[in-house]
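User: You have something folded?
Assistant:
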Amino acid sequence: MLRLPPPFQRLPDFLQLMRLDRPIGTWLLMWPTMAAVFLAADGQPERANLVIFLLGVYVMRAAGCVINDYADRDFDGHVERTRTRPLATGRISAREALILFVALLALAFALVCLTNAFTIWLSLGGALLAAIYPFMKRYTHFPQAVLGAAFGWAIPMAFGAAQGEVPAIAWWLFFANVAWTLVYDTQYAMVDRNDDLKIGIKSTAVLFGRQDRFIIGLLQLLVLALLFMLGLAARLDGFYWLGLVGMGLTFLYQQRLIWTRSREGCFKAFLNNHWTGVLLFAGIALSVWP
């Protein structure tokens, strides 16, 4: 087995803390962000903006994971899925995690400083949402809504960077993303629901109870309705509507996966949202491509 030199022996723990070994969260943030980048620029985003937002996706997702594990460091050890995380086991200290979080935020801010003043001001809201989200599960059953706003905040920022303003179509996409996040993060929370009930963690999965599948279905319909309004407002073409149909099919498949509420099925449904995001991005990108 390959041993890393002493200065790098803890690197795998920090990579795990930032979830760089599990890209699904990055993809779920990336697809709507890239959709916004292309939509805001009429299919021709500037190379600089494309690179800035791609790097920003990775940096901010890593920052969100670090502050999430910091907030949950006293709970993760009691949850089957999270008990081996670096902060829960003490392989990384709380102080080290906070330093890393601040460093990642500083890197993200350096990236956004390459855009314009309007986008810089918008970014402050995104940083605030990323910082408070992990603590919301102590006070509300809707931390997923805060996560959706945090994940979706790159959408108005993408329009701000490209146009210097945030038009109405950006908000259709933003609120569709919030509703979609409620869908997939509730599916994710269903995996941990029994553990969360024991330790008193709040989530939409806990709140919805036996109505979870029905409410997820309503949220999936809301996502499609908001994206339908986006398509009309932005006058998108047939590629977009095909993508929307494809998204609807992934939602039907996810309903099948969560039908028995098994941990494995709910987690597979959560992972399947990667393809939902691919279809969203592809539909928008192909529709606005010159």
